[in-house]
Amino acid sequence: MTEILLPDDFVLGVATSAYQVEGAAHEDGKGASIWDVFTRTPGKTIGDVPGDAGVDHYHRLTEDIGHMRRLGVDSYRFSLSWPRLLPNGTGTPNQAGIDFYDRLIDQTLAAGIRPHVTLYHWDLPHALQERGGWPNRDVIGWFEDYARLAFDRFGDRVTQWTTLNEPIALWMGYGMGVFAPGEADPVRGKQAMHNAMVAHGRAVQAYRESGCRGDIGIVVDVWRRHPATGSRADRDLALAEEDDSFRFFFDELFGGGWSARLQQRLDATGLTPMVEDGDFATARAPLDFIGLNVYSRIVVRATDPRTPWWTSENADRLPGGNYLSGGREFYPAALSDALAVLRDEYGVTTPVYITENGVSGPDETPGVDGRVHDADRITYLSGFLAEAEAAARRGLGVKGFYAWSLLDNYEWAAAYTEKFGLLHVDLETMQRTWKDSADWYARVCHERRFAFDHPEILGPTSGLPIGRM
Ligand code: FCB
Fold first, then answer.
1. Catalytic residues
2. Is 355 in the pocket of ligand 1 (CB under 6 A)?
């Protein structure tokens, strides 16, 4: 048994996002988001179940913050709902929305928990979608104005900001049609992705100008592609999928534009976005931290008819889904592999937070003892946390770790079928029940130490073929 000790200043947190947990989709003046509309469109979510109710975080704020206090987390990562603050996306703010986030921030701080606020976790105001959405370049100004509003109202108390969560969701939403708003137009998809990078950069500049004191960064999910075999075709596919996903963003954020290789691919497929002078310089605004969401790796096979994209761990995944289900791979080295991309390929030494890691369970209803015994989740989180600690010890600048998620919640196109929470939520009563993983995480937070029994699977492995475990 190996005991892992966490440094005192290592941040332990939990994460959620507005659409997935808040509910109250049409209350107190909130405008509709693209997810409100998408999940009410037949055929878009598993079982056609909409997410309007989230898991009622909006009404159970005080209780949920109480759970976090009991867990002993240092930080709570949540997102603001843009249409709750600006029902039309631009224009007059909704005072009730501002009041809600004031309460959330104040109560979080009062519980001794530091808020880490994401401006955009996928819920664009529907009103802005009607004006063209993310592929319309005007989104850069809309987002900047929204960001300024958030800094102005909350920047006195919030000291950690993320502009965008996982911008690849724009490809799912505009390029593939499997996420909101459900457009399947690759040209608009790539344009949305580029516009988002410029919007991000402008928000960072706005933050610097705001006079607020704190850190700002972005969250990107890195799913490294590992070729299933040493064949040229598999290796090329792995590279191409990485270029089309996280490298599209990292090239803009850190490289000043796309690599010659990616640019060539974009040109060859007719998907090069329209870029204006200065865009790449804007997208490259210096950051205080980088958030990495790491869940696993994806093993690619050129001969697999499911390629490209969701080739990964098991054949039953919904295209574009971000969830894992039975048969998933447990691969903590994904964390070091992601860090290696930043450090070795891009030469980036900016501090890193692991802003999401976790795993879904199939059916986690409490048993006769009223408990959920989610041993897999404990193993999973302890593996990734051990990996994060090891990377911190190697001097790779890893400052913290957020478990996804505090609560079982609405998992996008998978609706309520995938449960990632430390706490179980009964969807009828919305009652919260601590799972074994919540007890485990509370012990980690309080004792700042835990056991991990498989040290042999930790450590960077980039490029290794399948079969290390
Ligand atoms: C991530 C998303 C988050 C949640 C987890 C499971 O990709 O950022 O909202 O869906 O996956």
1. 166, 356
2. no
